[in-house]
Each structure stands twice: as C-alpha cells, then as structure tokens.
Design goal:
Structural class: alpha/beta
Distance between the termini: 52 Å
Order of helices and strands: EHEEHEEHHHEHEHEEHHEEEEEEEEEE
CATH architecture of one domain: Distorted Sandwich
CATH topology of one domain: Coagulation Factor XIII, Chain A, domain 1
Strand content: 25-35%
Length: 435
C-alpha cells in the first residue's frame, strides 16, 4: 500500500531567519545550517498491516507521517501511496472556524473527494459518534478544543479510508468517548485496513500493532514485532550512548539475517502432521532472542511445559491440563519472596497473572545452593494462537517488590485449532497448585 524508497527530509535553519532566508532565495547566498529530520529511510507497508512508529521526541515520526500524507514533500527519495489516505495528525486541520459543525462535515468530506450523496449517508453517524447533536449548527469558533477534536475524529474515522494515519489522537474526549474511539479503531484493525499508528503508549503499540519500527534521529534503528521493538525502545530510553545505538543496529542486522532461517523453521513446524486432539513438541519453536534480566545471585532455568503424560510439549490442545515448571537456585539465602507467572498474548500483552504462594504470604526461605522446582498448572481455555509465559521472582526482604528476575517468553506455546474451540475472545482461566 505504501512504498518509501530512500527518503530524506532536510530543513534549512537560518540564524537570522528573515534576512538569511531572503538572501538564500533571491541572491543564492547560503547562510544556514541543515537539520536532517529524516535520513535515507526505506520502508514498505503492506495492505492490512498495522504499523506502529516508536521513537523519542524529535525522532522524525511526525515528519515521516506528513510526507506519507502528502502534507510535505521529501527532499530526496520517493513515496508511493495506493488508496485513499486519511491522516489524523491534527484533528481540526481542514476545518473553517467560521462554519458550523454541520457545514464543516460537508466541507471536509468534499475535500476528500466525496460527493454529497456519500456524505449524506455518513452524516448522522458522524454526528452521533461526536456526541455534538446540540451544537452541530453552532460555528466552530465557539466550540471548546475538546469538541473540535471530537468532531474531527468522528469525521475522519467515518470516511472509510484505505489507509489511516494516527498521531497521538486516541486521547480525545472523556473516558467514555476514548473507550468508544478505541472500539471504533478496533473495527478498523479487524477490517483489514492499512494503519500507521504513532503513540508514546507502549502497551497500545504492543496490543494494537502487527509490526513496529523504531526511529532515532531520522533513521530506522529497528524493524520487527512490536514487543521486540518496545524492548529496544526502552533500552534507548535508558541510555542513548553511541554503543547502545550501535548494539541496536547490530541486532537489527542480525535479525534480518535470521528472518530467512526462522521462516524455514516455521514452515517446517507447519509441515508437522498432527491431529488437533494430540499435543506435540517442535524443536526451536518460539526461541528466545533476548537475554533474561536476572539478578546475579540467581539461576533460573529448566523452563518447560508438560502434558498429563509428563511429555514435553509446546503445541497444546484446547481444554486440556498442562503444567509449566522451572528450577530456581540461589547462591545466597533467599528470603520472603514470591513467584509471579504471567500469561501473555501473541503481541506480548499481559492476559493473566498468578502469584505464588499468594498475595498475602511469602515463601519464607530458599537456602543457599539448593535447587527448588516450581510448577504451575493451567488449562488451555484459550482461542487458537501463540502465547507465552513470563516469570518474575520478587523479593520482599529488604524493600517491597524488589524484582530479582524478569524473564519474558520463558516458554512460548501454540494452542491448536479444535472443532470445539468456539472462543472468539481471549479467555484465561488459569489455576495453580501450591507446589
């Protein structure tokens, strides 16, 4: 849907803005510094993809969106867009403050190439969604900023574009209106529309996007699945040293080299003959690509899922019981601690949590150099898909909630399709023994 080829956007920064700009324009005397907002970006966005753009302030996210939208042109390179594109960058852009809400709906939609009959069909829905029925014939200049934004969002979201661009616009209105906005966006996500999404809310990136890109100073640092990109973004927030940036770039290159191999492994996994009534194990399925964050005093390993026959599996059957287990060893006495296990969805979002022993007590002590096996039972009341289990060890000896261990995707597993699996939403009814 969108092909971005070697695109750069440079701005001229004049020391004496008006005078130097005049000299540069009419006399050809250059006296300016160059700011590279976007530098040599190449990116293909496929139909139906939900792409999240991540980066610190000034990374170039909004500049890239404006070029894709046609609001500004690149200094070099090319951008090809196939389909009607609606940019929700500034929700009131394109409105006339002297026009009423009703007039602005027709004015804005006509600028998007819609005919009056087409606008008539969506008019009532736009007004109802904006919740501005009582003010629709009032000039926009008398609207509050929140009312203007709600009208802008309602108009844009109901035009039914092929490509939708969102830049920090899901904070419009009160809590109920935001909830309704998210529900409307989910309809877009499920309808196969192409969406580019910018936000500083990392949970939204993980939950809503199918792919994410990390931008830094106008360049793409990392391109991949949202939870991986968010991890790299958090590394960048912690430190923007050149070494960290170089490490992220190197991991991005390694990822590209491994993509072909992973695709082959996935194809092999899909070729395994199986009956949905039988669970099984596939080598290298869901291998971790990131080191765990574990305190040096701990050793946490031996992660696996076993079925009722004590067989190791990672392709699970709907509505059957399994146990997730691992070993914990410490080189000092570990006192007053809890084990936390979190079920995560396909995009890394947290779905359910189990705390052991429970939220009011602790494991009193794990003696130095002794192994302890932990086991958590669960039943796969989950719809078909890929899930993960992450593990945290939390100490309460010195301070409350001191995290000693945090391991994402300690195991990754797939719940197979099944004729009796009618789940249309993710439901997790986990339960645990006290072992």
């Amino acid at each position: 849907m969108i092909k971005i080829s070697n695109v750069s956007k440079h701005y001229k920064l004049y020391e004496r803005n008006v005078i130097d700009r005049f000299k540069d324009t009419f006399l050809g005397k250059s006296n300016y510094n160059t700011f590279k907002a976007i530098e040599n970006v190449t990116l293909d966005i496929k139909k139906g993809e939900i792409l999240g753009l991540v980066g610190r302030n000034g990374a170039g996210k909004s500049t890239l969106l404006k070029m894709i939208s046609g609001i500004t042109k690149p200094t070099s390179g090319s951008i090809e867009v196939n389909g009607r594109i609606i940019p929700l960058l500034e929700l009131t852009a394109g409105f006339n403050m002297e026009y009423t809400g009703r007039e602005n709906i027709y004015f804005y939609c006509s600028m998007q190439g819609m005919k009056k009959k087409e606008i008539d069909k969506i008019y009532d829905e736009v007004v109802a969604f904006s919740e501005l029925e009582d003010f629709i014939d009032v000039p926009l200049k008398k609207y509050s900023s929140g009312m203007k934004s709600r009208l802008g969002f309602a108009v844009s979201i109901n035009i039914n574009p092929d490509i939708l661009i969102l830049d920090e616009v899901l904070s419009v209105g009160d809590d109920l209106f935001r909830r309704k906005s998210f529900q409307k966006m989910n309809e877009f996500f499920e309808s196969g529309k192409t969406i580019i999404f910018v936000t500083h809310s990392m949970p939204n990136i993980i939950q809503m996007c199918s792919r994410a890109v990390l931008l830094h100073k106008g360049e793409i640092l990392y391109d991949g699945v949202p939870k991986d990109v968010v991890q790299q973004y958090n590394r960048l927030l912690s430190s923007s040293d050149k070494k960290v940036i170089d490490d992220i770039k190197a991991e991005s290159m390694n990822k590209k080299n491994l993509d072909g191999k992973k695709q082959i492994d996935n194809e092999k996994s899909q070729m395994v003959l199986h009956n949905s009534d039988n669970d099984y194990y596939v080598e290298k399925f869901g291998e971790k690509t990131y080191k765990a964050d574990v305190d040096s005093s701990l050793v946490v390993d031996g992660f696996n899922i076993k079925n009722s026959s004590d067989k190791k599996v990672n392709h699970l059957v709907f509505n059957k019981e399994y146990s997730f287990s691992f070993k914990l060893k410490t080189n000092v006495d570990l006192k007053k601690f809890r084990v936390i296990c979190v079920l995560t969805g396909s995009k890394g979002e947290d779905l359910s949590v189990i705390v052991r022993p429970n939220s009011k007590t602790y494991f009193e002590v794990l003696e130095k150099d002794k192994d302890q096996q932990f086991s958590i039972k669960f039943r796969t009341l989950l719809k078909q898909g890929i899930y993960g289990l992450k593990v945290s060890i939390v100490s309460h000896e010195k301070t409350e909630n001191e995290i000693l261990c945090n391991i994402n995707d300690a195991v990754v597993f797939k719940v197979l399709d099944h004729q009796f699996n009618h789940n249309r939403s993710i439901v997790s009814l986990l339960y645990s023994d006290e072992s």
